[in-house]
Amino acid sequence: MKIQSVVPNNRKKAFELRTGAGTYTFPYALLRTQPDSKNRITEAFPDEEIGRDGFSYRLEDGTEDTIHLDAVLEYNQDPAYLNGLLLHRLTVEANNAVAESELSKRELIRRLGTSASQFYRLLDPTNHTKSVGQMLALLHLLGQDVDLVVSSRHGTDPARRGIIGVLGGGPAMTVDQIEAEPLKLSAAQRARLAERLIAQPSELD
Fold first, then answer.
1. pLDDT at 154
2. Structure pTM?
3. Nearest-angstrom CA–CA distance, 1 and 19
4. Is 97 exposed, middle or buried (0-12, 13-18, 19+ CB in 10 A)?
């Protein structure tokens, strides 16, 4: 996904971005260097130096800053982006558990009923074709319980909303920890993941 265009909308106090996957907004309030009535945005453009994976903007006083597309996708709760974050967290936990497990990798492959190549694909953080269900099955075999906490968005302090964590590998994350390793899930994603957790994990393909 690349940024095709970005336009500052001073009335909405937000940037409006267009990508091949759709349109997004990003509020001025989240900028590190924020404009004001005496120092307005004069220019905003997809940044070619980072392959259009972000955009840069310039203020009247010449100050510039760059915003990566990941920050935009996280703010907009993009489902594909959030799924990637979730898979990455589960993969990190699985790798840690494999390193600490008394079971050999050959035995893990045998118990999963899969091939060695498929097993190593599951442990590859850059592989985005695996499913959450496959990672949960692997973590279950490694003796790790996945803890999912669902709470209402209304009347709840955002910092108290648990996201997801692997017991034994770390507690459920909160919004306070998002900056270090963001994992906010949409309501629809939480529902789908809850269904997978309730269901008996199936064997890997």
1. 59
2. 0.59
3. 7
4. buried
